[in-house]
Structure formats: structure tokens, C-alpha cells
Amino acid sequence: MLALNAGARVASVGLKRPVATPAPLALAVRHKSKLFAPVPRAAPVKKEIAVIETAHIGPKLQNINSPLDCWVDVAPSKSLIAVVFGPYYQVFQLKPNWQTSGRDANWAETVAIELLTRALVAHGYTGPSISVRSDSATALRVLNGGKCSVKDIEECGARLRYVKEVLPFKIEGLKVPGKHNVADAISRGKKAKNGFTEVKCPVIIPEALTPYVAPA
């Protein structure tokens, strides 16, 4: 069972750094294929991770079952993203200009997974593992290391691939029908089922996403 200890701060959650120092450079080099649009360079991504590592935010999650059951979903008509972790959930708002330049529901679903990982870090979750359920095959493919020809989705994928190297927990992606997605109703602005509690912990949103996403 999860428990929130109010007031706990997360100065460091035991995030592991890549063993090989050149890893960020390798990330930048890997994605020069003509098939894919340019992805975030190592420096910005590394900076984002450093911010997460030193973020003084909480409260902290403790006594967590593993793997931790998580769900993400997006309601484009409501411009809302919902992420659920254990009995807790958090909602994010998509800004009015989000659905431009190829950004669509699959992009938003991939963003939701990014936000979920950051919410868990903000709450001090150290693993050892989580299971992320989504109804977007594209988002799950990107999460599991696949690439995407859509520029903005591939940028999310590049960040996820790097973040997964330094997170203190492993991530497994699972496909789930929309009707069985716990985050579905929440993303549509409906009341969560009994047993789920909303939290509004400050979450470090990736710099590249700030023009399109904000805390709800």
C-alpha cells in the first residue's frame, strides 16, 4: 500500500548516472539518421535530468508494491492528461496551441509517460519497477525503445531513452483497452473512482514541453 508522508523533501532519490561518461554524446550521434527529425541534444537533456536530481519537492512515496501499477491517458477534447500511480493521480493541462505541427493524441500519450516518470521522481519513488498502462501503441513503442518518424514524438522518445538510463526504477509498458484504463475517466474531467486520491506535487516539466503543457 502507498503512503504519502507530507513535508518530505527529495534532495536526491538515488538516481543512477550512466556508467560511461560519453553516453550523452552517443545519444546525440545515434539520431542523425535522415529518417528522423533532429532530437534534443545531450546538453539540454542532461540539464533536465540534473534539475530532477536536485529538485526539492515531495511528499515522498513509501511502502510501494513492485511493480507499481501506473496508467496514463489523454482526452484531446478536454485538453487534459492524467497520470495514475498506485492509488494517486495527477492531472496536467494541454495549452491551446498543443495540437499543431504534427502533435496529436499519440504525442500527448507519449508526453503523459514522460510526466509520469517525473511525477514519480518528484515523489521520491525509487523502485524497483513500474508497469505503465496506455491505450496508445505508438507511445508504448517509443517507451520500449522504438523510434518514430513524427518529429515531436521522436523528441519525446529521445528524452525517455536517456531518462530511463538514469532513473532508479525500471519501466515496463503494457497495452490496455481504453475502457479498462483507470486514467481514462480522470483525463475526461470526471471524478476518479473510489480509492484514488489527487495529488498536486510540483513536477519538473521538460523545457521543450513547457509551451504546450502545464500543471492543471
Number of strands: 9
Into which percentage range does the β-strand content fall?
A: 15-25%
* CATH structural architecture: 2-Layer Sandwich
Name the CATH superfamily assignment: Ribonuclease H-like superfamily/Ribonuclease H
Percent helix among the residues? 25-40%
CATH class: Alpha Beta
Describe how the helices and strands are arranged.
Elements: E1 3-5, H1 23-30, H2 42-53, E2 60-62, E3 68-75, E4 80-85, E5 88-94, H3 105-122, E6 129-134, H4 137-143, H5 151-166, E7 170-175, H6 182-187, E8 197-198, E9 213-215
Parallel strand pairs: 3-6, 5-8, 6-7
Antiparallel strand pairs: 1-2, 3-4, 4-5, 5-9
Describe the structure.
- The protein is an alpha/beta fold and 216 residues long.
- The chain has a single domain (3-11, 21-215), classed as Ribonuclease H-like superfamily/Ribonuclease H (Nucleotidyltransferase, domain 5).
- 31% of the residues lie in helices and 20% in strands.
- Strand 4 (80-85) and strand 5 form a beta hairpin.
- The longest helix is centred in the middle third of the chain and has 18 residues, at 105-122.
